[in-house]
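Chapter summary example: a protein plus magnesium ion.
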Amino acid sequence: MTRETPVLYIIVPCFNEQDVLPSSHERLKQLMKQMLSQKLIDIDSKLLYVDDGSRDDTWNIISLLSQEDESVAGVKLACNSGHQNALMAGLAQAVEHCDITVSIDADLQDDINVIPTMVERYKEGCDIVFGVRRERKSDSWFKRNTARLFYKLMNRLGVDTINNHADFRLMSRRAVLALLDYKERNLFIRGIVTKLGYKTDCVYYDRSARTAGESKYPLGKMVNFAIDGITSFSVKPVRLVMQVGLLFLIIALIMLAYVLTAYFMGRAVSGWPSLILSVWLVGAFVLIGLGIIGEYVGKIYAEVKNRPRYNIDTTIGLDKE
Ligand code: UDP
Ligand code: MG
């Protein structure tokens, strides 16, 4: 591994990003130039765009950029496979060609100006450098607070994540190789990365607003992502159901004692309200329990099928010749 002037691949997953891609590319290109002139990175460094099955002009833009410029490469997934899978596709393609990767969202809401600092940290011996948002003023109140709640919940449930770190991070080649060894289909990359065990560090920045296009993470996708994150890493929800179940058993025993005393004292006519209440409560908890277990069974199903994460349609600008 060369820590001196590493070959850097910046990996950018893009899903219907035609509006924001040209300006993002301009800024990334500028940054690459600057880092090259500072001898921070090797001349073979590239920008790698992963088109996650976009239905707009994204791939055309990527292939045009790549034809014009040797330092631009593209991977086109055959269909939309989701942000995390697109990122994995990019990392898997890049790892053969580079020493370090930086992943960043296409809208560049994360501050690209900390990338040189990330590279510095790598040179000092870190294998993973997390980009961490200092504040989220530019996000809507709703996004800010749901995100905060999410990180809090994850920590409570024992999932080891870095607060306010999304998928903006530098990874060395060996860290990427280690990550690629995680074969699970229910991907929550930022939960895995903290488990790799290599030396890590954080760099801090302020998150800006999306400049063009709209968020590709509407509420539904966000909720799914959160559920994936929790159930892929934690069995606590199942234990919680178990504990609630035990609590209900105790309540049921107390109820039984109450009903028996009432019976022997000859006051047992009115039993219907408590009975119907118990039936409903128990029914509800059985259903909740089943739902949670179903979530895990669903995950096992997905893992057992062992389907490929993505299917690559074309790549451009990645061959060495
Ligand atoms: N993205 C993707 N596939 C998807 C959804 C999103 O590759 O199915 C990419 C998207 O192009 C962007 C990144 O994931 O580069 C993050 O999306 P976005 O900025 O819309 O999310 P937000 O910042 O609103 O959470
Ligand atoms: Mg964004």
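Key point: The first strand starts at residue 8 and ends at 14.
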